[in-house]
Known about the structure:
By secondary structure, the protein is an all-alpha fold. The chain has a single domain, classed as Growth Hormone, Chain: A, CATH 1.20.1250. It is built from 13 helices and no strands. The longest helix is centred in the middle third of the chain and has 50 residues. The chain is globular and about 55 Å long.
Amino acid sequence: MLSNRYVRTILLSRVLLQLGIWIRNFAILLYISDITHNNPQYVSLISIVETAPIFIFAFIGGTFADRWRPKLTMVWCDFISAVTVFIVLLAVLSGSWYALLVGTFISASLSQFSQPSAMKLYKKNVPAEHLQSVMAMSQSLVAIFMVMGPVIGTFIYLNYGIEASLILTGGMFLGSSLVLTFLPKDDKEEVTSGNNNFTKELVAGLRYVQANHALRTLSLTFGVTGLAAGLVQPLAIFIAIEKLGLDKQSLQWFLMANGAAMLIGGMVIMGIAKKVKPQYLLAVGLLVSAVCTIGVGVSTLVSVTLILQIVSGLFYPCIHVGIQTLIMRNTEGPFMGRVGGTITPIFMGMMLIGMALSGYLKDTTSLLTVYMLSGCLLFAGVVLLGPLLKKKKESTKHPAM
């Protein structure tokens, strides 16, 4: 797969992006938790700022990705992100920590134009039988930085401060933009005519998803699992502090364990990608995540929580690879950006609602209650996926005449 120039170049770009994102995100988390004395509302706000653009701009970005040249879009998005980071650095030096949130919001917004372009290039230039393996490889890359990212981000922030973290982040984004310039030149026929009505293209994307049974089912499952993820994502730091009695810096070790397991899980899926249907991967991943989420909320032992993080990490690639493969296999090339831009906001919108509620629910109920609720929602996601699993099973028993 690495012999494919598109796969090789995009993955190298993603290495630099992931490194920059982890350095930035951990620096912001630790910096803001320091100056706000671990205020859960502000900690939740960080997660909201990182994910809100996905809900707000994903559909618009996906539509533009179908209209614009993918290489050019990716290069400019990463370059503007780098410039934004350096502007934020100047604001922080003047004493405005809120600029960190603004800069993160802008960078995350630009990624909603860049990511669909990468998927569009994969769809066009990677053979269909290799798509699931490429998605597994991408997930393995994310897992590597789940291991390395927290350590690198924490080390840089604790030893060199927020300024050095932002400088390195900007450098990584700039490097990614440079790497992407080595992609082959965009084909002119890839670009939708600028004379086409933008609103009509938006509506066409919505109708495409509505008419596709698999994509409709994914949308429903996405909504429920997004809410589940949003409820617990901002609260991981409180598992370490309140449930386990550790300091906040210890969070990085749990994320490392989870990321190492994700790496192993991704490698396993790369080996079995052609043998297992993506809808089954997704169902198994959601089921295991539900059990592990409830377990983490109940556990007061470091060893048990660590084991649950490892098990969850092993099966998380099933969710990512299953979702991405189902979307790519059930979507025609000209609609790739719009389909991703339709389904992703459903997940992220519900995730944002969960994030907005997480701090309040923790304060009014308990950490355990929030994690139990999240686990139950993940179980519901498996149930909603049922019709798609049943349909696929029946289609194998009764082939079309």
